[in-house]
Amino acid sequence: MKKSAVLQPGDVLRDLLDEYQINPTQLAEDIQMSVSAVRQIVSNKAKISLHIAKRLSKYFGTTVQYWVDLQNTIDLVRIENDQELAEIVKQIPKAKKPSIKTAASKPAAKRNTGRTATVEKIPEKPSRKPRSKKVKDPDMQESTSSDWDEA
């Protein structure tokens, strides 16, 4: 893989650790992660997940989006340099939308590719009028409540 001029999230994190004079062990303790996970990120061997981005953003006063963008940028650079993926992508055909005239002229069953749906009418339940009953309320004289209000 080619080296790129794009900053990797681990490099940015390492620079912040230097700037704040914090070691990976202290960071791991403060953001409740394992030391090995922090060291993996700092050495660019592990990605920054959304959970980690949330923790780092709180700790360093940045946004979650900042860390997500750093990770996404490096991921995009990596896939652009992935020759195996490039070969696969070359072989993928582009999807084609049918023209409106073509789609409208086909019978519905053929447009649904053989899938048919049956709709059964569900019988309606007879409506039931809720019964009212008197409820004693110490603050009020008498009030009326319905069975529907009690839950």
Task: Reconstruct the topology from this structure.
Elements: H1 9-20, H2 24-30, H3 35-42, H4 50-60, H5 64-80, H6 83-90, H7 100-105, H8 108-111, E1 132-135, E2 143-146
Antiparallel strand pairs: 1-2
What's the rounded overall pLDDT mean?
Answer: 81
User: Into which percentage range does the β-strand content fall?
Assistant: 5-15%
CATH topology call of the domain at 9-89: 434 Repressor (Amino-terminal Domain)
* Termini gap: 64 Å
Give me the strand/helix succession: HHHHHHHHEE
| Main pleated-sheet profile | 2 strands, antiparallel
Task: Detail the poorly predicted runs.
Answer: 137-148
What is the number of helices?
8
By CATH reckoning, the class of the domain at 9-89 would read: Mainly Alpha
CATH evolutionary superfamily of the domain at 9-89 = lambda repressor-like DNA-binding domains
Q: From the alpha-carbon coordinates, what is the Rg to the nearest angstrom? A: 31 Å
Strand order of the largest sheet: 1-2
**Number of beta strands:** 2
Structural class, from secondary structure content? mainly alpha
Helix content: 40-55%
* Overall outline: flat
CATH architecture of the domain at 9-89: Orthogonal Bundle
